[in-house]
């Protein structure tokens, strides 16, 4: 019932291509503008390529649906779900984590090919530091008695931007300021003051225990113990990074650079990116540092699953697609129903599906049960774009650059040739994200090989409705465009060095991650007051909570880990497993807090 045999070997990405020297003319599906010498991407033979497993086991008509009982039923096993589950089992609650796919982690999972481990989503990981309170991944693992070896990255990212702007964000803060300041000497002071403001946010967060902001007892305690830090956070919580940057910086080119910095975590410009999140990302990279978990990003989820399953009465179930939330006569969420017909009864339900997939006519809570607050959420936030991504295996000997950490290639890169295409470009012309995790961790590819994970924002409407041939051809064309851009920017010889590549599109992300339109997460529809209107974990449906990137504080692994920790804390308090104010006072104060935020 728990881990299916396919746990170690699965196929979350759709098309697979391999390098071939056959002339382009042999395959009419391959667009004529692929780079030369012949760069020809042929789908691997379907007979020899492992095919995707069915996402949901078929209902067996001879089997009677079962009902099981647990304290908390959790829909999905993304990082939000797993960190909430870890928090809950540590308080003594029993949990059932129900994942529709075959591996844990959602967009933070890893999938395997013979000899290779590929990360499903971004490989740039924050939250693995050893000190302070913001190292939420280290802490979540510790909660369930686990730890992971991580490899520190000396450079968070190298930007290859228009007008030859080439900036490395070094692990050392002063070195980064020197690097950026040397490109804009007249703005040295402003640059320092902006990033120092980020440190002020980070310092406040990193001074206090991070738990649920909708749990009044914790709020009172944290205010009493850290009044200055709390007031400082209140000062910034309603602000966006762009407002703060403009206070100190005049040169629009530096503002554009900060826009790009914000884009990497929020897929939006600085004007739409909460200052609290900017503070976290722009400082943790110099404090805990960016670190790669040895063996792949999916190791985090695998270890959390092991830790959760070690607790008596808790389990993680794969191939378990939840089709609806179940309610009692009073309209309180009291469990979930799976596609197999099985029911898991619970005192509380947590959804790690996006809000668009949780609520609405195709969601898990439908019709009149969808609360008003969810429609309000949609007035404020829209789905961000998805990505077109490629996982590429590359022969080191055929590259024209040195692929080592010391003096050679950096692990993470951002490429953009034209500022006009920065946030709005379609069809693969926008910002390109590239990670080469094998620079840090050689264990995830065979000797002499490297992994390139490349992705660029892409919208569902670019891909929907295409017949299979056109879909495949568009993927091949997208791959060749990404490869060409990387070759020009920093990695000569790439097209000739490719062993095989797999391309994913918004359709892939929707199918395998269950995310509406394959979206990366919510994005402010218009300028909002920082993080103030981002919903916490409780919903207006009694007994139902949300976790993950459509809850406070938004996208990112460390951000969803925070949402998981705070969700676990609030649920534990509601179940009487964590300290809280007397029930009536608790309900009154947290209700008031929720309402005030909704009106903002
Ligand atoms: N390097 C990084 O910082 C990094 C890397 C990877 C992911 N991320 C972040 O992770 C965030 C997403 O994490 P998340 O916690 O919100 O979740 P997620 O989208 O990663 O995972 C949700 C999980 O729920 C499952 N699911 C959805 N509907 C279901 C249903 N009906 N029944 C059963 N299972 C269902 C999906 O299969 C998936 O595994 C993104 O914002 C992304 O930024 C960051
Ligand atoms: C009550 C009220 C309202 C108030 C009071 C006051 C207070 C106390 C406050 C507090 C607050 C808090 C606690 C907050 C918290 C926050 C947090 C934790 C946050 C976090 C965040 C994080 C983030 C955002 C992250 C992100 C990241 C990301 C997204 C990443 C990504 C990556 C990628 C995409 C990659 C790229 C690159 C390449 C490849 C190159």
From TrEMBL:
One GO location term (cellular component): chloroplast membrane
Which reaction is this enzyme known to catalyze?
7,7',9,9'-tetra-cis-lycopene = all-trans-lycopene
Q: What subcellular locations does the record give?
A: Plastid, Chloroplast membrane
Q: Where is this region: Disordered?
A: 46-66
Write out the pathway annotation from the protein's UniProt entry: Carotenoid biosynthesis; lycopene biosynthesis
Coiled-coil intervals: none
**GO BP: any one term:** carotenoid biosynthetic process
Its membrane topology = Peripheral membrane protein
The record's listing under InterPro entries reads: Amino_oxidase, CrtISO, CrtISO-like, FAD/NAD-bd_sf
Entry-linked Gene3D superfamilies: FAD/NAD(P)-binding domain
Where would I find the Amine oxidase domain in this sequence?
82-495
EC no.? 5.2.1.13
The Swiss-Prot or TrEMBL record lists the needed cofactor(s) as:
NADP(+); NAD(+); FAD
How would you classify this enzyme at the top EC level? isomerase
Domain of life, source organism? Eukaryota
| PANTHER family assigned | PROLYCOPENE ISOMERASE, CHLOROPLASTIC (PTHR46313:SF3), PTHR46313
Q: Which family does it belong to?
A: Belongs to the carotenoid/retinoid oxidoreductase family. CrtISO subfamily.
Under what name is this protein listed?
Answer: prolycopene isomerase
State the organism of origin. Answer: Betaphycus gelatinus
UniProt gene name: crtISO
């Amino acid at each position: 019932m728990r881990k299916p045999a396919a746990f170690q070997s699965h196929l979350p990405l759709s098309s697979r291509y391999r390098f071939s020297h056959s002339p382009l003319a042999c395959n009419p599906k391959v667009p004529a503008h692929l780079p030369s010498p012949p760069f020809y991407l042929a789908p691997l033979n379907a007979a020899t390529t492992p095919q995707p497993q069915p996402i949901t086991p078929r209902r067996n008509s001879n089997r009677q649906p079962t009902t099981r009982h647990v304290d908390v039923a959790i829909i999905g096993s993304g990082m939000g779900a797993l960190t909430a589950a870890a928090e809950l089992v540590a308080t003594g609650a029993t949990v059932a984590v129900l994942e529709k796919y075959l591996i844990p982690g959602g967009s933070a999972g890893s999938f395997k090919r013979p000899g290779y481990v590929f990360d499903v989503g971004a490989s740039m990981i924050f939250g693995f530091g050893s000190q302070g309170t913001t190292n939420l991944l280290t802490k979540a693992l510790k909660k369930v008695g686990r730890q992971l070896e991580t490899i520190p990255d000396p450079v968070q990212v190298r930007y290859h931007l228009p007008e030859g702007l080439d900036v490395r964000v070094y692990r050392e803060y002063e070195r980064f300021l020197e690097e950026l300041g040397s490109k804009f000497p007249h703005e040295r002071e402003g640059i320092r003051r902006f990033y120092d403001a980020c440190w002020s946010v980070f310092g406040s967060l990193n001074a206090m225990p991070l738990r649920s902001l909708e749990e009044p007892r914790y709020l009172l305690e944290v205010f009493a113990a850290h009044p200055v830090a709390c007031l400082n956070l209140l000062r910034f919580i309603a602000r966006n990074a762009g407002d703060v940057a403009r206070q100190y910086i005049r040169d629009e080119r530096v503002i554009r650079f900060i826009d790009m910095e914000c884009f990497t975590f929020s897929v939006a410009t600085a004007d739409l990116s909460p200052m609290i999140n900017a503070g976290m990302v722009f400082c943790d990279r110099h404090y805990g540092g960016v670190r790669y978990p040895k063996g792949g990003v999916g190791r985090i989820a695998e270890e959390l699953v092991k830790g959760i399953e070690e607790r008596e009465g808790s389990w993680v179930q794969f191939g378990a697609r939840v089709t609806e939330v179940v309610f009692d006569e009073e309209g309180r969420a009291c469990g979930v129903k799976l596609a197999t017909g099985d029911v898991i009864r619970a005192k509380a339900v947590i959804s790690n599906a996006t809000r668009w997939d949780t609520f609405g006519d195709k969601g898990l809570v439908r019709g009149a049960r969808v609360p008003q607050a969810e429609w309000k959420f949609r007035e404020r936030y829209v789905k961000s774009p998805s990505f077109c991504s490629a996982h590429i295996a590359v022969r080191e000997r055929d590259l024209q650059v040195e692929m080592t950490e010391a003096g050679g290639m950096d692990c993470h890169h951002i490429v953009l040739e034209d500022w006009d295409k920065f946030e709005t470009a379609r069809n693969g012309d926008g910002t390109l994200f590239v990670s080469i995790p094998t620079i840090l961790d050689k264990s995830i590819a065979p000797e002499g090989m490297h992994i390139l994970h490349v992705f660029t924002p892409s919208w569902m409407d670019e891909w929907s409705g295409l017949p299979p041939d056109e879909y495949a051809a568009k993927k091949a064309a997208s791959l060749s465009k990404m490869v060409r851009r990387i070759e020009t920017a920093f990695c000569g010889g790439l097209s000739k060095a490719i062993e095989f590549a797999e391309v994913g599109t918004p359709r892939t992300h929707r199918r395998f991650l269950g995310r509406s339109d394959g979206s990366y997460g919510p994005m402010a529809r218009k300028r909002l007051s920082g993080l103030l209107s981002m919903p916490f974990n409780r919903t207006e449906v009694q007994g139902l909570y949300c976790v993950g990137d459509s809850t406070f504080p938004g996208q990112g692994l460390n951000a969803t880990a925070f949402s998981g920790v705070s969700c676990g804390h609030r649920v534990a308090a509601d179940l009487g497993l964590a300290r809280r104010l007397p029930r009536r006072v608790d309900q009154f104060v947290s209700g008031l807090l929720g309402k005030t935020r909704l009106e903002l």
